[in-house]
Amino acid sequence: MESQYAKMAKIFKALSDPKRVKIVDMLSCGDMCGCVLLKCFEITQPTLAHDMKVLTEAGIVTSRRDGKKTIYSLDRKAMVKVNIQLQKMTKMDCGD
Fold first, then answer.
1. How many other CB atoms are there within 10 angstroms of residue 50's CB atom?
2. Which 3 state secondary structure label does DSSP give 11?
3. What is the strand order of the sheet 61-66 is part of?
4. pTM for the complete prediction?
5. Architecture, CATH, for domain 4-89
6. What ranges in the chain are assigned the alpha helix state H?
């Protein structure tokens, strides 16, 4: 079973690329088709597919098929968990 620290590290690694951070920001406004995301960046489809795979495997983005299109969504529950964990990690109370 993956530890909480390993999960957090995977998420941070996924967000270490500015393009992926922008994708997450865009998805925070609502679901998007991969074709729409592709138009926003000067990258190839395989590059976008790789980035989306990284975000999906990190657990912060989900995908579903709609005919020939892939629709991506931000996993808001996962992002809330990340936020809570960051708040816990930055608390000044260390049990002293």
1. 12
2. helix
3. 32-33, 69-74, 61-66
4. 0.86
5. Orthogonal Bundle (1.10)
6. 4-14, 18-27, 34-40, 45-57, 76-89
Residue 48: how many CB atoms within 10 A of its CB? Answer: 20
User: What letter represents residue 91's amino acid?
Assistant: K
* Each residue's pLDDT tens digit, 4-36: 889 999 999 999 999 999 999 999 999 999 999
- Which residue, chain included where needed, has tokens 């967000």? 15
Query: How many CB atoms neighbour CB 87 within 10 A?
Result: 9
How would you class 91 by CB atoms within 10 Å of its CB: exposed for 0-12, middle for 13-18, buried for 19 or more?
exposed
Token pair of 81, please?
């968990």
Residue with tokens 């049990």: 95
Cβ burial of 89 (10 Å; 0-12, 13-18, 19+) is exposed
